[in-house]
Amino acid sequence: MFFKSKITLSLLFLAVVVFSCTQEEQPSVSISEDTQEVQKIIPSSEIDRIILHSLREKGDFIWMEQSDELLYSALIQGDSILTIGYKPVGMQDPNARIGLDDVSSANWEAASESILEMISATLSKNQSPNYRLRDQDALIHEQLPYLEVKVADFEVLQNLRKMPEVRYFEPVGYQFDYSLLDSGDSPAARIQSDAGCSNSADTGLSNADFTAVTPNAKASWNYQQMGIAQAWSQSTGSGITVGVIDTGLSPNQPLLNSGFNSGESSGRFVAKFGTFKTGFWFWKSYDGPDDRCGHGTAMSGVIAAPRNTVGNSVGVAYNSNLISVRGTSDVIINSSDEKNGVAEALVLLGNRSDVRIISMSIGDVFSNSKVADAVRYAFNRGKLIFAAAGTSTTFTNWVGVIFPANMSETVAVTGIKEGTGYQRCDTCHSGSQVEFTVVMQRSGTGTTALSLANSGDQPSTVGGSSVATATASGIAALVWAKNPGWSRDQVLNQMRSTSDLFPNRSSQYGFGNLNAAAAVGVN
């Protein structure tokens, strides 16, 4: 990810937004006594109550729909960093141009400079000595149409609201109290910093939970029900590259490293990147591509684990290429570092001509415009993006389809139990934005789909809409490999037209269960 400084406009090779100033770093910005006298601060408890109410009533929370007072209060109770999306004056549909237009061109650059000039003039007029706009306090992203400013001045927000160049502005660092989403029945279910992080071998599997396939691999019990095993006679994903944005790959799982080409999987590649940064201000640094959670390893295994010789789980598209990007530390995109990391990951994959499919088994309960811009960037560059509808391991089932699966640019997937009819899995979300379902939970035992554990040759089991999304991404790779000249829309239409409920669409489950065999032409 690249940024331009406000004054020098020199290119800075940065992966996520980094700010610096001459003051000593603080975790949150204090405000002057004069500012406190002018503007009452809404406490975080009240901000969270408003967020929760919006989620219950509308299914989402949009910062730009809130008052300037609330935005200001969230800004100064966060890290004082404001994300500002911009556009050329008069452009009617700027979202459709993200990823296609060069934001360093004259009309886009004029918009960003106009915003920065307004901010600088406002701070100067108000004589805000602690918040003078310096080179290090404002950075313009080189590929996405947003800039980020370290500022805490109420009038700046008021002025931004009036500018035709502004698409949105949001306090990137405000932290919502996710424990409020609990039903109250189980305090232990509250959001944890390692949400969704577990991927150990399942030692309780029975022979009914998998099918042995050559040379010595285990096909998950649900592969037959989804037509995946049958589809392998026509396609194994060869020549298709799938990008996975998640928590990375475990260096201790050989089948996603040196053993990626083994057994009946050959002639393909795996690549690993890390866009997630930790630290503060200009001390931020990448923490690498390695999975410290386990979720990314499991999802990548579902998609592309080799048809191996060691008795481990085989992936849906076991001859596809895999690019893993560690963009987040867990499954919830809630911190500023995770938002930055996921946005950069989408740009990275969007810029790669070999990537056709992006799988995102991650999300958040409400929208973030920076990440949304990055989703549009990748989508407008032709990528087929699958996103998880939501998994309630850490919040209640009343939450509908989560972000970014609720975007029109993504394909939302959720999981259901085996058997007749449609019964969502114990932890899965459903809703009108869902496009497809995947059978991934046994009705009797509750066993979920098989994948690769962080290490060893014994499979793990993974559940929720996460594994459903990874499975759908793998099926898309099978379809595209069978029809390499097809466009994204042709692949998606083929998946729709061969799904269980097509041409009808359920209000909760979309077109229903995917059928990989039918999608690749198996009678």
List the helices and strands and how they pair.
Elements: E1 2-5, E2 11-13, H1 33-38, H2 44-58, H3 68-76, E3 81-86, H4 106-125, E4 138-141, E5 146-150, H5 154-162, E6 166-171, E7 210-213, E8 217-220, H6 228-231, E9 241-246, E10 270-274, E11 277-278, E12 285-286, H7 295-304, E13 321-326, H8 336-350, E14 355-360, H9 369-380, E15 384-388, E16 411-417, E17 434-441, E18 449-451, E19 460-462, H10 464-482, H11 488-497, H12 516-519
Parallel strand pairs: 9-13, 9-14, 10-13, 14-15, 15-16, 16-17
Antiparallel strand pairs: 1-2, 1-4, 3-5, 3-6, 4-5, 7-8, 11-12, 18-19
Can you characterise this structure?
There is one protein chain. The longest helix has 20 residues, at 106-125. By secondary structure, the chain is α/β, with parallel strands linked by helices. Residues 5-37 and 184-194 have low confidence and may be disordered. 25% of the residues lie in helices and 17% in strands. The two termini are 46 Å apart. Residues 237-512 form the Peptidase S8/S53 domain. Residues 1-20 form the signal peptide. This is Peptidase S8/S53 domain-containing protein.
Q: What is the tally of helical segments? A: 12
Total E-strand runs: 19
Strand content: 15-25%
- Quote the average pLDDT: 88
Structural class: alpha/beta
Q: Using only CA atoms, what is the Rg?
A: 23 Å
Q: How would you sum up the major sheet?
A: 7 strands, parallel
Distance from first to last alpha carbon = 46 Å
Strand order of the largest sheet: 10-13-9-14-15-16-17
Low-confidence spans: pLDDT under 50, at least 5 residues?
5-37, 184-194
Share in helix:
25-40%
What best-fitting shape do the alpha-carbon axes yield?
Answer: elongated
